[in-house]
Amino acid sequence: MGGVVGKIMGVKKPDTSAQERQIQEQREQIQEDKKTALIEERQLAEQRSAKRRATQRGGKRALLSTARVAPETGLEEETLGSA
Fold first, then answer.
1. Could you give phi then psi for residue 2, rounded to 5 degrees?
2. Cα gap 10→59, rounded to integer Å
3. Contact assessment for residue 31 and residue 23, using Cβ atoms and an 8 Å cutoff
4. For the chain, what is the mean pLDDT?
5. pLDDT (tens digit, 9 = 90+) per residue, 39-66?
6. Contact at 8 Å (CB) between 37 and 43?
7. Residue 6 parent element (H or E)
8. What mean pLDDT comes out for the span 15-33?
9. What number of CA atoms fall less than 13 Å from residue 28's CA on the CB side?
């Protein structure tokens, strides 16, 4: 009955397209935020795991020479052998 009265009186439904768009944009933003949070959480967990692994297994290597940055390159100056 309400539909018939609405047609007779000329009452139209309000335009809600702007609100629907805004709700959809909010939902998309929430999804992006969730993805970003998961990525950050995973990265932090990996960092914590790597740190824990390094302290348990690695330790400091005090015997390496400070004269070289990378062991593959060897020593730049002649310090061993005859002068």
1. -65, -35
2. 81
3. no
4. 78
5. 999 999 999 998 888 877 765 554 555 5
6. no
7. helix 2-9
8. 95
9. 6
DSSP states along 10-79: T------HHHHHHHHHHHHHHHHHHHHHHHHHHHHHHHHHHHHHIIIII---TTS-TT-SSTTT--SS--
Of the candidate ranges 23-27, 39-43, 65-69, the one whose mean pLDDT is the lowest: 65-69
The pLDDT of residue 15 is: 84
Residue entry with tokens 């009265």: 5
Residue 66 in contact with residue 58, Cβ under 8 Å?
Answer: no
Backbone angles phi, psi at 74, to 5 degrees: 80, -175
Checking if the pLDDT of 37 tops 80, the result is yes
The burial of 20, by beta-carbon neighbours within 10 Å (0-12 exposed, 13-18 middle, 19 or more buried), is given as exposed
In 3-state terms the chain splits into helix, strand, coil percentages (rounded to 5) of: 60, 0, 40
Q: Residue 35 in contact with residue 45, Cβ under 8 Å?
A: no
* Beta-sheet strands, E only, within 1-83: none
